[in-house]
Write a structure and sequence with these properties.
This is Exocyst complex component 8. Belongs to the EXO84 family. It is found in: Cell projection, Growth cone; Cytoplasm, Perinuclear region. Helix content is 63%, strand content 9%. With 727 residues, it is of the alpha+beta class. The strands form two sheets. Strands 1, 2, 3, 4, 5, 6, 7, 8 and 9 form a nine-stranded mixed beta sheet that branches. A hairpin with a 2-residue loop joins strand 8 (252-257) and strand 9. The protein is elongated, with a radius of gyration of 47 Å.
């Protein structure tokens, strides 16, 4: 029974762990709440560990069984492949022989007509053997698996075209190639394609090299000798790179076709060398052919024949200027080698990430074609170059994308930004640079660990953010110096957005966590000090940080004001109007220092004999709390907070003034009334002037509301017996 319950519990646990909506955190939380103690958790941990070991054993068992089945299947496939290979080889030879019979038997038929009597069975057998040998020579264009062949028989353009047609009939999905005039096969062979990053084998392919392009077809295993069209690459946009042997990876070469690249492996080193040589030769021949065509197109035509005046009496005497000068103006020399190889050189530079070299070539071409006409050859060249410029721009844009690594700081983007600016893409370079730096700043803030005291975290946050902002500003000034001033406006907009990101993290840690006003004031002070450092480069963002923080600071001032008012009301409710007895001289000395730090310099006159203070505890506590609030609030002060701070001070002071006024009017005991009047005198003649003076020093201008409040208090001193409230 116990075993059955254990199996049931294990099965239930397995189903729970395998469910699609399983949440580990929630599971552990519920388990901790339901467990009775450490023993239950240990037992549950042992059950999970046993389940993990059982799962691992099942996985090993399944892998072993699948591995055995895989070996058996691979062995059967190998046998079948061998048989199919033999059958395909026989069928290919038979087809080649049948197609070549008319070509090989025409000379034999003529000879047989001249000497039919001398023909014998042995001669016929010899003729058949010779025919088969000749057919084998022609069948070199029809590759056997794993082989490669080169068109060296020179059967003429018609023969080359016919051979290409026969070959392409073996490739599905490339009928459109048969309609290209003047196209013929140069070389073909089997290759194995590998993945560029991890060098994992992808597929078997067959390459067909024509005089102007390279066709890649994939091998169809279910139809031996047949292929499916995969890709077609023009030779003028193709770069060939030899891949150094690194056993077991050897006999490989790479084809670069922006924006992709492919790696192929030949059967052996000899075939690899043949592929490299024939590709370079064919590309060179195609380039030479294109150059000759451009020279012929740019060559001046003969001047038009002009009819003599004798034969054309109606011709105007002024209309006899030849058209030859116009033809001379349209002539542009494009036969130079560097111009002919420019598209290919640009492809190589882009593939090798030589962005500076690519832009240098473009500048050289633009300088050469400057102030020159644009005949058709020049327009064709510019069309090819513009395509490479588009490809280069895409690569540079990708280099600046936030998906790339953000390490290295803003200097890591200088290379791509400078080349985009040289290409005339200043606006795009500015946008991508700022987007990249925004992602970097966001990542740096997100990776900052929240640990320790709030002030320590704010120091780290300010250092990370403002250092990044300062480095970005300096790099921006270096990269975009001399460009359109609109880029600087874009930077200011970006800086404001980045400051918003900083304030979000700042407020979440300082204000949302309900820190004390003193801590919030210190944190804001640190942020302001770091922000002022940007003034060294002429960037003042202080007004932005004020605008973004004003709402949070208003909330903090209001919240702390309410705390002081509630505390003051609570002390007022328990007020007994008795003198303070601090018991020890040390306590009295400490109170004197506190009151002196609050700005009350004449506190000595309110101290009595021994350790007595001729003031109420409520008034002394109110003085310290109010002056502390004022000092911290002045650290947070900026003009937008003037009325908020002033109204908060007035509300706090009114609570004390109302309490003294009420006590003075209601108290009947002469001694206590005299003591209340003494506290009122301290409050009106000492505390309020200190508050008013400190506020004026911190803000820079006097506060009329505080002056009116102090003047209104004189009515109480003039007529203390009045039962009318003046507040």
């Amino acid at each position: 029974m116990v075993m059955a319950m254990s199996d049931s519990a294990a099965s239930r646990l397995r189903r729970q762990l395998e469910s699609g909506g399983f949440d580990p955190r929630l599971y552990v939380k519920q388990l901790s709440q339901q467990s009775d103690g450490d023993r239950d958790l240990q037992e549950h941990r042992q059950r999970i560990q046993a389940l993990a070991e059982e799962t691992a054993q099942n996985l090993k068992r399944n892998v072993y069984q699948n591995y055995r089945q895989f070996i058996e299947t691979a062995r059967e496939i190998s046998y079948l492949e061998s048989e199919m290979y033999q059958l395909s080889h026989l069928l290919t030879e038979q087809k080649s022989s049948l197609e070549s019979i008319p070509l090989t038997l025409l000379p034999a038929a003529a000879a047989a007509a001249a000497g039919a009597a001398a023909a014998s069975g042995g001669e016929e057998g010899g003729g058949g053997a010779g025919g088969r040998d000749h057919l084998r020579g022609q069948a070199g264009f029809f590759p056997s698996p794993g082989g490669a062949s080169r068109d060296s028989s020179g059967p003429g353009e018609e023969g080359k075209q016919r051979t290409l047609t026969t070959l392409l009939e073996k490739v599905e999905g490339c009928r459109h190639l048969l309609e290209t005039p003047g196209q013929y096969l140069v070389y073909n062979g089997d290759l194995v394609e590998y993945e560029a990053d991890h060098m994992a084998q992808l597929q078997r392919v067959h390459g067909f090299l024509m005089n102007d392009c390279l066709l890649v077809a994939t091998w169809l295993p279910q139809r031996r000798g047949m292929y499916r069209y995969n890709a077609l690459y023009p030779l003028d946009g193709l770069a060939v790179v030899n891949v150094k042997d690194n056993p077991p990876m050897k006999d490989m070469f790479k084809l670069l076709m922006f924006p992709e690249s492919r790696i192929f492996q030949a059967e052996n080193a000899k075939i690899k060398r043949e592929w490299l040589e024939v590709l370079e030769e064919t590309k060179r021949a195609l380039s030479e052919k294109r150059r000759r065509e451009q020279e012929e197109a740019a060559a001046p035509r003969g001047p038009p024949q002009v009819t003599s005046k004798a034969s054309n009496p109606f011709e105007d005497e002024d209309d006899d200027e030849p058209a030859a000068p116009e033809v001379e103006e349209d002539k542009v020399d494009l036969s130079m080698e560097w111009i002919q190889e420019l598209p290919e050189d640009l492809d190589v530079c882009i593939a090798q990430r030589d962005f500076e070299g690519a832009v240098d070539l473009l500048d050289k071409l633009n300088h050469y074609l400057e102030d020159k006409p644009s005949p058709p050859p020049v327009k064709e060249l510019r069309a090819k170059v513009d395509e490479r410029v588009r490809q280069l721009t895409e690569v540079l844009v990708f280099e600046l994308s936030p998906d790339r690594s953000l390490r290295g700081g803003p200097k890591a983007t200088r290379r791509a930004v400078s080349q985009l600016i040289r290409l005339g893409q200043c606006t795009k370079a500015c946008e991508l640079f700022l987007r990249n730096r925004a992602a970097a700043v966001h990542t740096a803030i997100r990776q900052l660990r929240i640990e320790g005291a709030t002030l320590l975290y704010i120091h780290k946050l300010c250092h990370v953010f403002f250092t990044s902002l300062l480095e970005t500003a300096r790099e921006f000034e270096t990269d975009f110096a001399g460009t359109d001033s609109g880029c600087y406006s874009a930077f200011v907009v970006w800086a404001r957005s980045a400051m918003g990101m900083f304030v979000d993290a700042f407020s979440k840690q300082v204000f949302d966590s309900k820190e004390s006003l003193s801590t919030a004031a210190e944190c804001v002070k640190v942020a302001k000090e770091h922000c002022q450092q940007l003034g060294d480069i002429g960037l003042d963002l202080t007004f932005i940080i004020h605008a973004l923080l004003v709402k949070d600071i208003q909330g903090a001032l209001h919240s702390y004001k309410e705390i002081i008012i509630e505390a003051t009301k609570h002390r007022n409710s328990e007020e007994m109007w008795r003198r303070m007895n601090l018991m020890t001289p040390e306590a009295l000395g400490k109170l004197k220092e506190e009151m002196k730090s609050c700005g009350v310099s004449n506190f000595e006159q309110y101290t009595g004999d021994d350790c007595w203070v001729n003031l109420s505890y409520t008034v002394v506590a109110f003085t310290k709390q109010t002056m502390g609030f004022l000092e911290e609030a002045l650290k947070l002060y900026f003009p937008e907070l003037h009325m908020v701070l002033l109204e908060s001070l007035v509300e706090i002071i009114l609570v004390a003034v109302q309490h003294v006024d009420y006590s003075l009017r209601c108290e009947q005991d002469p001694e206590k009334k005299a003591f209340i009047r003494q506290n009122a005198s301290f409050l009106y003649e000492t505390v309020l002037p200190v508050v008013e003076k400190r506020f004026e020093e911190g803000v820079g201008k006097p506060a009329k509301q505080l002056q009116d409040l102090r003047n209104a208090s004189r009515l109480i001193r003039v007529n203390p017996e009045s039962t009318t409230s003046v507040v």
